[in-house]
Amino acid sequence: MVTLGIDGNSPADDFLDQLQTSNTEGYDALYARLRAVAERDRYENMLTFRSLGDGLYEFKTKKSGLRLFAFYDQIEGTEPQLIVAASGTSKSKRQAADISRARQLRERYLRGKKLPNTTIEIKELDS
Asked: Which domain holds residue 109?
């Protein structure tokens, strides 16, 4: 499990850092879900990790309403696929906008891998 940074911005890191200081219980619950999914080749619990379509997935916590949007990618030299965290939010009325933003980050990442002037950073999620 890694977080995504594009051109110096890392919305997933920002979200997780803020969450870790402001909502420790929520952070711990979300992190437990991240580890559970990352440690398996296939994860089939739609209550905690589900497809939103078009290659985007959502980690979520029931009690605290947290959402972390991610996608799979095969980085050369890695095995198996990486789960790349793009951005996160607490459940809100803007959820459609938050999902749209995560989709845009995924598309920028996929395009940016092919463009020489885009700086893409992949950072392993702290354990």
From this structure: 2-124
Q: Kindly report whether the global pTM for this prediction surpasses the value 0.90.
A: no
Q: Are 34 and 125 in contact (CB under 8 A)?
A: yes
**Contact (Cβ atoms closer than 8 angstroms) between residue 64 and residue 29:** yes
The helix/strand count (H/E) of the chain reads as 3, 6
- Number of other residues whose CB lies within 10 A of the CB of residue 4: 27
Structure tokens at 66: 């947290």
Strands 82-90 and 2-6: parallel
Helix axes 24-38 and 11-22, enclosed angle (nearest 10)? 130
Q: Write out pLDDT tens, residues 59-95.
A: 988 887 899 999 988 666 655 577 888 999 987 667 8
CB atoms near residue 25 (< 10 Å): 10
Number of folded domains that form the chain: 1
Whether residue 52 contacts residue 58, with contact meaning beta carbons closer than 8 Å, is answered with: yes
